[in-house]
Amino acid sequence: MLPFENLVRIDRGLRQPAYQQIASALQKHIRQGTIAPGLLLPGTREMARVLSVHRKTIIAAYDELAAQGWLEVEPKRGFRVTPGLPEVQVNRPGDPAFGPATFSTGFYRLEPEIPPIPVPAQAGPYRLAIDDGHPDPRLAPVELLLREYRSRFRRNRHVVRPLENGAAGAARLRETLSAFLAQTRGLQAAAANIMITHGAQMAIFLAARMLLRPGDVVLVGEPGYYVANQLFEELGASVVRVPVDDTGIDTRTVADICRKEAVRALYIVPHHHHPTTVTLSPERRMKLLALAREYDFAIIEDDYDFDFHYSSAPYLPLAASGGQDRVIYIGSFGKALTTTIRIGFMVAAADLIVQAAACRRLVELRGDTQMEEALAVLIENGTMARHLKKVNKIYRERRDLLCRLLEEQLGHVIRFSKPDGGMAVWTRFEPAFPLAAISDAVARKGLFMHKGTLFDSPGQSYHAIRFGFASLNEQELREAVSLIRQACDSLQMP
Amino acid sequence: MLPFENLVRIDRGLRQPAYQQIASALQKHIRQGTIAPGLLLPGTREMARVLSVHRKTIIAAYDELAAQGWLEVEPKRGFRVTPGLPEVQVNRPGDPAFGPATFSTGFYRLEPEIPPIPVPAQAGPYRLAIDDGHPDPRLAPVELLLREYRSRFRRNRHVVRPLENGAAGAARLRETLSAFLAQTRGLQAAAANIMITHGAQMAIFLAARMLLRPGDVVLVGEPGYYVANQLFEELGASVVRVPVDDTGIDTRTVADICRKEAVRALYIVPHHHHPTTVTLSPERRMKLLALAREYDFAIIEDDYDFDFHYSSAPYLPLAASGGQDRVIYIGSFGKALTTTIRIGFMVAAADLIVQAAACRRLVELRGDTQMEEALAVLIENGTMARHLKKVNKIYRERRDLLCRLLEEQLGHVIRFSKPDGGMAVWTRFEPAFPLAAISDAVARKGLFMHKGTLFDSPGQSYHAIRFGFASLNEQELREAVSLIRQACDSLQMP
């Protein structure tokens, strides 16, 4: 309920009777839109109590306003502000109440301004969506996670660890990860080297925030992860793109650039490069570490895909191969759980973690430390390991099925190569088949699909999408591919 | 399990027998610390399968390493890497594995560097904590929220709304808030004016990021919310402190400053100013809006406490009183739920929301849109309104109890005034009772309490804490106050 005692002031000193003072005060607020059209006013008894006047006074005020058309009586419910009054200053349906910002100085825009993601004409909701590599939330151990989570609230006396609600994350999860990282990827990190973040993206943000200042050079793969590139540019860094081939980022080009200019940092996705899904070879990993030492730059190693391998075993992180002094290692549990339960982590020098936590506090104070503790339990009791084993098998089958379907039904339309792991297939379309048109066509059939421009960069158009297979079951994959096939066929009609 | 197939390469061409190649490869990784001390190696069968050699070969390799002391046999479990080998390069217990950052250029530090929060000697965990104004998670409708949340995963086919996983938050919650804000505080905002954030702090960050550039002047209350001040300084803004008295920030001083220099933004907490808990008077609200227009600055209105009033009704936000063109309004559900389920919101001009969402995407992609939808359901079905009514009654009782206890037991030690609402009492200690010593003393009894320096600013020491009462029940409040009393008494002993 609105705080009417503050909206309506009755001055006993005035000649004007109280009911009129109330009526005109309410009318003023209805005009201004502070009392919204269609709003049901409090009952006369309630309003009389709130304004501490006699109920008859309220009835008189309401009747007065009803007579003037400001209120309408709703049988059995009471008085409602008449909807659609022309005099009322509120938003017409559709257009935002606030309109555009009118600070005459304007607010600062992001520079360079971030282009909106082009979306199909159709607004959705969709029956199906081709994401660029999300896990299937239907397979995630959400029930087990939430059971642990809820038990933390059921306790009569909640656990008190004020020092632990730190921006670096729940102490228990940091300890647990210390062991988990050693067992899974040979990474020796103490809890003090580990920070829990709100998804891997926040770890990338904090690493970039710590490393980059306007004008600094950061090397990225081309094609590459557009969100990271936008972030680096937004921080004022100069983003230099290095070609990515079948074994990852081209180290020879990296060396050439280092000889020419001072490089501050290198951003890589060593397992299943985003978007092309190639794996960085061990030789190149060693080469990059050597270059980082020789030319004194930092490596941001975004290894969010480490846990998902189907045709081969993963390689150890650069951070594990003696690169601890140079590398900020980033991982995520988002792919193991869901894209909405966002828990990522950063592994780095202890003093850098302290700074990153201080910086994180300014952005969002802290994460959901209770959820972080619940996740720690799932890792400790082996649930996470079992889950990863299970979904690796299922996602492998989905990858194989999708690749077979693409082969059979879209062989003449696309080019792709089967990824060793991860959750998406880098799918390039032949120019004869415009992705924008295909996207619109399948949208009308209830399938969301990107328009293929996400990964374009200055002077480079890939006409490609990352075809996420992990979140779609067999039937959904078949439907998605056949809808695309139909769209392509209809495009070829004379 | 570690990816041993990539750690151990067997070269059939070599003279050296396979078991020796395996043994030396494993030894190398144990030395480097990639295979951690104490780690249980895979069984001989499993390892033979992984490396595709005969099991006898693995047994020979393990025996060799055991003979050299690298491994030790654990009956019934297998071979374990010997802990505490001097030659192994890993962290000694206690010190972080990575040590300090050794980038010779170093990484950039936050400037000004953010001081760590001073904490008691005692490390915790604590039986009790005096927070600076948190809700009681034991009262939160977490069960109902999580029921809605879980139901979203149980569905065989998850809802597909790719366009909605936007950084601006779940569309359903934005729509629901549009109505909720009109009904509770007379704020007319369309969904396009509303962005869901990860806690109110992220809304403050985004607003500041949009408004402030290095050198810009931002006005804040003194004493004030130190995290916001640190954020503004970190963004390079020049923070100018304006005295706060019993009716809020001193508008005369604001006017004086505006006459002298260009002011870019003003940050206020209109209900229960942080830390002093005073409420900004309606007259001053109008004055601030007038000044904002006259001198062309923006107002960041952090109204996180709007929903918690005990002795009086809340005033309408500046954003509702015709200030829509000048004000960025910030609210939160963190206080209504728990401090860990962090859902806040920002209300502003539509084009500013678009920019803020683009900026948020670079920091953390998106929030937990499923949790946001679950919260929307609780607001729509009236659970939230009932919950707020319930806790307002309980928190009022706790406030009254705490104030009585402070009066009775610490009257000679502290000064405070009873807050109209919110979750904390601004409690200033007499110089004769050093807070640092009291904090350490109660910590030894299991009570966490800040050292009273959080709100100090250059040249200003308040020797005060915000005594959070909402998260402590009657018994806990009594215990906390009596522990402080005991500490004070012992300090006075000759």
Automatic annotation (TrEMBL), chains A, B:
Keyword Flavoprotein found: no
Keywords associated with the record: Aminotransferase, DNA-binding, Pyridoxal phosphate, Transcription, Transcription regulation, Transferase
Top-rank lineage group of the source organism: Bacteria
Domain HTH gntR-type: 16-84
Keyword flag ATP-binding: no
GO molecular function, one term: DNA-binding transcription factor activity
CDD domains, sorted: AAT_like, WHTH_GntR
A Pfam family this chain is assigned to: GntR
SUPFAM superfamilies: PLP-dependent transferases (SSF53383), Winged helix' DNA-binding domain (SSF46785)
Coiled coil: none
InterPro entries per UniProt: Aminotransferase_I/II_large (IPR004839), HTH_trans_reg/aminotransferase (IPR051446), PyrdxlP-dep_Trfase (IPR015424), PyrdxlP-dep_Trfase_major (IPR015421), Tscrpt_reg_HTH_GntR (IPR000524), WH-like_DNA-bd_sf (IPR036388), WH_DNA-bd_sf (IPR036390)
Family annotation (SMART domains): HTH_GNTR (SM00345)
Family note: In the C-terminal section; belongs to the class-I pyridoxal-phosphate-dependent aminotransferase family.
The protein, known as: PLP-dependent aminotransferase family protein
Organism for this UniProt entry: Pedobacter yulinensis
